[in-house]
Amino acid sequence: MKVMLFIIAVTFSVLLNGFAFSILWNWFVVPSLGVNELTVSYSCGIYLLINYVTTKADIVRSKDTTEIFIIGFITPIMSIVVGWAILQFI
Fold it and tell me: pTM of the entire structure?
């Protein structure tokens, strides 16, 4: 049950953050720089990439072995799985 809730929470978080990223990008970056608009799918992928890169720095500060395991092994796997799922909608 906890695993299912975790998967639902991660999926909802990625979608919500991707939606917010796409809205903010389209509101501020597109008009000011004249670049293309981002879809929610691309925004979710960019969010995952940014989250993946910035989370790596936390592993150095952690002393908890469970947290190190999650950051070091689960985060990359979940990023790839969720990224692959998002790629199916692009």
Answer: 0.65
